[in-house]
Amino acid sequence: MISFDDFDAWGEAVSGASLRLVCDAVEVPHWSLGILDLGGVVLQMATEGGGNLCYGVNTHAGPLLFVPLSHAAGHVVNGVRLDEESLFAIPQGADFSIHVRHRAHAWCSIALPDGTDVTACGAGGSARIASPGAALPKLRGLVGSIFSALEGTPAGTRAHRLAGLELASAARACLPAVAPVRRRLGRPQVDRKTIIRRSMAVIEEAATLPTAAELARESGVTGRTLIRAFQETFGTPPKRYLLLHELHRIRRVLVAGTPADVTVADVLVRNGIWEFGRFAGRYRQRFGESPSETLRRARA
Questions:
Q1: Which terminus of the chain is less hemmed in, N or C, by CB atoms within 10 Å?
Q2: Which CATH architecture has domain 189-299?
């Protein structure tokens, strides 16, 4: 397992998906990640030191299974809460959202080979899956055993391939049943996913971060509908999501380094921020240091 003391550095190392990540409060300033290539099956195991608001797309050649290893009920996927008997299935190319609020947690993902069919579980999209019987506890136990045995060993061995076959078989055993999802009357789930997908595209393409009102307008919905979509998907309203996103975006710029004659104020102004003192206070509260301290460390 590789250890990180920075959320963004950890996020860049996560494999198998194109992700937009925002850290939602830090409980313990420590993140870790381990990846095992098991000959066609890729097992990823992670711990996070705080909450996480995640939107992404599965870029692996086959489907992904996301399995909480702690605080299962704290994980909300596509606006639906998981529990100890459920996991999250994400077909190849499908988009998804996962959020955990305010607390440290652990999870694993299993990237299955191309051709593994999980579409029946979610009508072609990512979906919460209720696993039959003791299938999911067995899968969690197997994940731990494989990591304990093979972490740090050279990849490509017969042991890796056999472990991959066993893991794929255990994962498939978790797939048959789909949990019923309680949908809110008058607003199909697909509408919420479309709103979030549009919103992420607007945020990604904007030169400066939009306001919540601008985001609603560009996404083609009312402010109230946008709030509801973000609340169900990320557990937080769009205004707070945008605030967290802005903090992380500025931090990435500062950590990446800037020319010696560029100041923090220059970076903030270029990103549409003029209330330097207020921003610096929020930044310190989130990351435990001022923007200027981040920039000095990056240049050291």
A1: C
A2: Orthogonal Bundle (1.10)
d(CA 281, CA 294) in angstroms, rounded, equals: 14
Whether the CB-CB separation of 191 and 207 falls below 8 Å is answered with: no
| pLDDT confidence band for 119 (50 / 70 / 90) | low
Q: What is the mean pLDDT of residues 75-103?
A: 91
Say which amino acid occupies 289.
E
DSSP 38: -
Domain borders along the chain are: 2-172, 189-299
Q: Report the interhelical angle of 291-299 vs 238-256 (nearest 10°).
A: 30
- The residues, ordered by sequence, that sit 6+ positions from 291 with a Cβ below 8 Å of its Cβ are 250, 251, 254, 264, 267, 268, 279, 280, 283
Q: The tokens of 185 are what? A: 């009357």
Angle at 201 between CA 17 and CA 26, to 5 degrees: 60
CATH tag, 2-172: 2.60.120.10
202 and 229 Cβ atoms separated by less than 8 Å = no
